[in-house]
Description:
The structure is a homodimer of 315-residue chains. Chain A is α/β, with parallel strands linked by helices. Chain A is built from 14 helices and 10 strands.
Amino acid sequence: MISISDIESAYKTLKPVVHKTPLLSSRTFNHLNGNEVYFKAENFQRIGAFKFRGAYNKLSSLTEAERKRGVIAHSSGNHAQGVALASKLFGIKAVIVMPHDSVKSKVEATKGYGAEVIFCGTTTDDRERTTDDLIDKFGYTLIHPYNDEKLIAGQGTVALEIFQDTKDLDYLFVPIGGGGLISGCALAAKNLFPNAKVIGVETEGANDCFQSFRAKKIIKLQSVNTIADGMRTLSVGMLNFEIIQKYVDNIITIKDDDIYPMMKFFLERMKILVEPTGAVAPAAVMKNALDIRGKKVCAIISGGNVDPDFLKNIL
Amino acid sequence: MISISDIESAYKTLKPVVHKTPLLSSRTFNHLNGNEVYFKAENFQRIGAFKFRGAYNKLSSLTEAERKRGVIAHSSGNHAQGVALASKLFGIKAVIVMPHDSVKSKVEATKGYGAEVIFCGTTTDDRERTTDDLIDKFGYTLIHPYNDEKLIAGQGTVALEIFQDTKDLDYLFVPIGGGGLISGCALAAKNLFPNAKVIGVETEGANDCFQSFRAKKIIKLQSVNTIADGMRTLSVGMLNFEIIQKYVDNIITIKDDDIYPMMKFFLERMKILVEPTGAVAPAAVMKNALDIRGKKVCAIISGGNVDPDFLKNIL
């Protein structure tokens, strides 16, 4: 298992290239909520999400030979863009395998960072087969979206930056997809804010980690159903789950319907654009899922990449 | 005419109550634009626009007797909310005269800050008559939206904050409605950044100050036609124009159609919500209206209060 020093070391690597994202707050939100709440705005991160951190840290650790052969990732979302941008900065060839029905704007963004996009079918099997074939053929290194120590250490720098701006948190709310962000941040937080409770948040339609945490073993869902596209993983990774079991205090779920009012509040009152997955942890605070009052709370906004059509529907 | 010390004094008054808004930048924007560009994000100011600054500074200068009688303003936009919130913080009664066809969300926001809203007809005459009647009857103090020295000094604190974050600007782009923001900021900028050129920006459909600047006298339009609702004043104020003539280097215009791509870039790439008027100065930079390269440029985002329906249409 990685330690806080891996995260500190990742931060040394990342500091020159990441945005130090702000901790935002809203008087109105605090007044309505009854807590002192801060939002870590990773929607302002490069590529619009925290995923750039882990990808860049991972790529920084590759050997010269691996860099020459190039890297591959399968993702229809922010991981694709994170790997694409990090590869561009290192001058490494990146191949991204995406389902052929991916949102056009995400495909364009990934290509815009210079990655080669290879389309595949829409099932997990299609994606993995296409990726494996390309690895066999060209020797690319797979950049896993969450089950990787270098990646976890990179995502953990989010909590390191929170600590630079505020020292005494009572609660840290983190969204859970594959578990990369929460494993890195829980490990960092428990070292930096020993009194803070780390709370993972999922949507009910993708509650694999909620179930796994209670069962004390990884449970893999057959299918997921949620508007939070960053949470549509069937299970968390093994490396992630080890850390989650050790450092996370509780995992809770919210409904998809809790996401919309939070996204609207961010947009209309705080003037920031947050994607559905990015609003999940804040939404758990907004609905006061834990019934807390007078506490100092931080919720991580994981990203801000919203499809314009989706946004139109919310408005 | 006010001096830099009036603005510094306003900042002492405002510092405990305003948000110090960030200077934002985008690698992608800079790359496309060829300049080093910063956006002063007053869309993150309290009430969602710079207007709170001037209103609060003005109210801080009222006598005890004036405070007891209360204040009045006529506005369908951000000035209404600025006066409403400032009044609430001082415990002063505020009456806002609004056309009966005002956007519902702005009426609700104004009421939400505790102001009394009085509806009137839609013409300037209706608005002024209703306001004058109420002043005659109740002795309220009129808080003018731009033609007021205390107000101008308050708005000038925007430039003071820019100077706290960056010292050596080549250009400062400022939107012009009634002239409150640009007069305060031009005066401050010419003292703080003596080498910076201050450029005022209007839309073609509300180009009164553009015309006045060239004619060297205030020209009043018969009507305006622009989506930038904060620019729908028929002329700038006398106090504003004196300062503009002395300290502004040039005034340029853009088309309404230049506003949309800038708003979209802010939302989709920078994840922030900017209202049409707030995007006017940045849009002049985006289209490189002055054909500059390699310069350090700041454009002020005046506000972020967008009607959800309008936003839907843009998307």
